[in-house]
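1,4-alpha-glucan branching enzyme, pasting as requested.
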Amino acid sequence: WFVEGREMKLGSGMSLICIFSLYISRFAERLAQLEEAEGAFDYFTLSYRSFGIQRRSDNGLVLREWAPGAEAVFLTGDFNSWEKQSHPFTQKEYGKWELYLSPKVDKSPAIKHLTKLKVLNTSRHLMEILLFAFLEWHPFQPPRPSSLRIYEAHVGISSPEEKIASYRNFTRDVLPRIKDLGYNCVQLMAIMEHAYYASFGYQVTNFFAASSRFGTPDDLKHLVDTAHSMGITVLLDMVHSHASSNTEDGLNYFDGTDSCFFHGGSRGNHSLWGSRLFNYSSWEVVRFLLSNLRWWMEEYHFDGFRFDAVTSMLYHHHGIGTSFSGNYSEYFGIHVDEDALVYLMLANHILHKLYPQCITVAEDVSGMPGLCRSIEEGGLGFDYRLTMAVPDKWIQVLKEVRDEDWDLKNIVQTLTNRRRGEASITYAESHDQALVGDKSLAFWLMDKEMYTNMSALTAMTPVIDRGIQLHKLIRLLTHSLGGEGYLNFMGNEFGHPEWLDFPRKGNNESYHYARRQFNLVDIEHLRYRQLYAFDRDMNLTEDKYGWLAAGQAAVTTLNQADKVIVFERSNLLFIFNFHPCNSYIDYRVAVEHAGKYKIKLNSDELQYGGHGRLVQDTEFFTEPMPFNGRAQSFLVKSIASFNHCIVKRFVNYTLFSLTDLGI
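Structure tokens follow.
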């Protein structure tokens, strides 16, 4: 599929075709092993129904844990006044431990709803668990979107107030905004329980618990249910690449050894993150992780996952000190962790087999070939990959290059450089760019003037004018040219004026920057409202005409001197003028289809913070004049500097389709 029938040779002499055949073979072998030993992969991946705490029909409780290195295991908690050795587990085969608690005299469970517990061995505390969250809720889930528009969000920072916001707050205040903005998917970060708030949820301590700092499990289920009722798909940020090194409340040293869930010794430690690395060759670790995926799908009805730090999983070097040029030898060889690779194949196989509408997204900076191809082809089976080079490119351009020196060919190359047949989620910025130490696009563009000059009651300063126009153009160009899905981090759609910094010693445990100031959008005279309106209408236009679900764009004009980009996608025409000074009169553009074109979305409209230089009801008529490889073309009356617009095409004055003039 990507070698185009040629057996491309690696340095070892082995061909890529052989390597992918090997991956298929290893995957099939592993799947057959677990099906033979466990009866079926469905049963194997539902192990969370037998491990942990299970309630019988008579309200008796059975507790099972896997701790092969433990000498003795005990249960303690609120229910027994934290007595450490009053409730011992019984050792079973294969490193498993079991405890039965009979019902109380009144037939109620021995441990009541929302009780806090710890499992201990003879030397240390191990893991804190919040138990028994049951909720009757609606099982409706929206159909899988053909054009995925993702709103990346963190519940805790979702309020303008200086506090940790709740699931309930997010449901009430943020979901309606996401719906209004035209996003059809929300990606929730930091849901898996984590002790350190400032880790952004990437130092997971309890894989089978929703973070209690935001509310109860019922509250999270209500959030997911409400999103589904709005037609919004919900993805969970899934961290199976590593785990917190905490011993008091995490998996580390769960059975008293360093190799229970992880590789022993230095191989089990991430040298940069200070976290523990899973041993994907372990039968019980695979059981734990696959069951974890099933648990989130079954218990909370998530629609899929964004797998974090896939690069760290795929390679023994974890991407540390490694750059990827695209040479195939970088992706295949002894430096690839084949156990992790096969685990990801198993995860995607099971998720898509059992939940056909499930969406899986890989965060991989390396560009691993086949990541988003089917397992039958030797791929890893993901639906989408993140285009992580795109936000880096935009930041590099804004930091280092003057407007008049922008290399549009390089920008377009970055946006279109993706593997054929592998769908991508593109974005101009995500949470990474919002964190302290970096800047969002809006902050790079407008900096401190965002605090003083964003009022629409006064004339725009040159800095604000440039910033608002480029903020719109960068996001639309990324949206329309860069992939098969689009992602935005919460607040960036309206140019959130501050960075993101969680409470820590370095900022005196302040929540001032650990929030999103949605209130700025609600103030009518502030220009944040104009950026919000453009982002909304950009999404709604895509929703109507579906360029993300179409094939890759065909660029017909890439004029470096004029700073003009023109391309067609999904029967749409996009025209961008990135020149900071020059506007153009009677600018010829090429189109595939003859007809009449009308403007539908125009970034120069006043409501978007533009200057109103284009006549919105202008009609454009094609003529059979070949231009830039197309049989038809027409003249655009005016292409304003730093601007874009959208037009609709008619044939015989009957609606046919839309074109997007990104001017």
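Note for the archive: The longest helix spans residues 16-38.
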